[in-house]
Design a protein that fits this description.
Helix content: 25-40%
Largest sheet: 6 strands, antiparallel
Number of strands: 14
CATH architecture of one domain: 3-Layer(aba) Sandwich
Low-confidence stretches: none
CATH superfamily of one domain: P-loop containing nucleotide triphosphate hydrolases
Distance between the termini: 23 Å
Radius of gyration: 21 Å
Shape: globular
Strand order of the largest sheet: 2-1-4-5-6-7
Number of helices: 8
CATH topology of one domain: Rossmann fold
Structural class: alpha/beta
Length: 369
């Protein structure tokens, strides 16, 4: 899948901008604050979820605009297939409500995942392995979503049931037992689906990583672990989860939160060559493992889904030495698909193998070349 045309209206610092790009590598360069990352953020909204910054919709509206924004893309699906038009944004009259259109027809945000898989790396993710379990779960769920677009629906319904159960448990003595049982059945159903999808994705990704040739990027070994750090070898079925939630009502009521379940699991990573946990590795090793993981996942999606995800790599090149930067470009160009990269200097992208589309970004404007 290739974003052949991208149009932004009143998005961040871009008032009205349009660019056309081909398959292969897309290099965006310009000064800090020019709006390069804003372009990647706009693209990330063409997938389910809150985008690469997880920002509020109202914060994405350009200063001085009427209160809405629009992101539109024409996606080339292949030589024998018609392009797909994807659009999203908000209207001034409804600043908190996201609108999605596919080929001009209204659609749910989760439906975007049926058409386009998108994965990103940003500087804020460099500390993924030493930050919270919640950040790693969101990262893992983004990997899952690229392989299973239904994962977002299960996640949304699970979270809604979790919130409703929490409200009931805040007054457990007077809680409606029948409604509580119903909510736990919903948690079990959607939690089991989430858990199974995560396990399938990690199994497929681990196999892909194991088959990757030696590269300048460190290879991670990945494991799903529970809240206590114990490895999760097999998925929980719905009945096991239903019993878990029912048995922990009093514990969860006292804690003020659900203390066990798929929403408490974590992604653990180990440096394959040294056996050190990712959190104990150097910053450079952690970055290398993230890159290795994302590149392998791209291959995994291409093999299992039949389409390669669009990669958004924000300021990646600036933090790599020349050898690793060249290796990254060769890998991206060799695997096909489309990858968007940002950097402050055109020289960072001078030795990219083709095809390459280059844009200079300045003051919310695009200039080809």
């Amino acid at each position: 899948m290739t974003l052949a045309r991208l149009s932004l209206t009143d998005f961040r610092n871009h008032a009205a901008a349009e660019m056309a790009a081909g398959p292969g590598l897309v290099a965006l360069y310009g000064d800090n604050g020019a709006g390069k990352t804003n372009i990647l953020e706009a693209i990330s909204l063409l997938a389910p979820g809150r985008g690469l910054r997880r920002a509020a919709l109202a914060d994405m509206v350009r200063d001085g605009a009427a209160g809405g924004f629009a992101v539109f893309a024409e996606v080339a699906a292949g030589e024998d297939l018609a392009p797909v038009a994807l659009g999203t944004g908000i209207e001034p009259a409804h600043p908190g409500r996201r609108i999605v259109r596919i080929n001009g027809a209204p659609a749910a945000a989760t439906a975007l995942g049926d058409w386009l898989a998108i994965l990103w790396l940003t500087p804020a993710m460099d500390r993924l392995f030493v930050e919270t379990a919640g950040n790693r779960r969101r990262f893992l769920d983004r990997l899952v979503l690229a392989l299973d677009p239904r994962h977002a629906q299960h996640g949304n319904r699970y979270e809604a049931a979790l919130r409703a159960r929490g409200k009931l448990l805040s007054d457990l003595a007077n809680a409606d037992a029948q409604w509580l049982t119903s909510l736990e059945a919903q948690l079990a159903e959607h939690g089991a689906a989430m858990d199974a999808a995560r396990q399938r994705t990690l199994a497929a990704l681990s196999a892909e990583l194991a088959g990757q040739p030696d590269t300048p990027f460190a290879r991670p070994l990945l494991t799903l672990v529970d809240a206590d750090g114990a490895p999760r070898a097999t998925p929980d079925d719905a009945e096991a989860l239903r019993k878990l939630f029912a048995e922990r009502r009093r514990i969860d009521a006292a804690a003020g939160r659900a203390t066990a379940g798929p929403h408490r699991d974590d992604l653990a990573a180990v440096h394959a060559a040294t056996g050190r946990g990712a959190a104990r590795c150097s910053t450079g090793e952690q970055k290398a493992m993230l890159l290795s993981l994302v590149l392998a996942h791209s291959d995994c999606v291409a093999r299992l889904r039949g389409q390669r995800p669009v990669l958004l790599l924000d300021e990646v090149a600036a933090h790599l030495d020349p050898v690793r930067r060249a290796a990254l470009y060769e890998r991206l160009a060799g695997q096909g698909g489309q990858a968007w990269l940002t950097g402050t200097e055109a020289a960072l992208f001078g030795d990219m193998p083709g095809p390459v589309t280059r844009f200079r970004i300045a003051g919310g404007r695009f200039a080809a070349g």
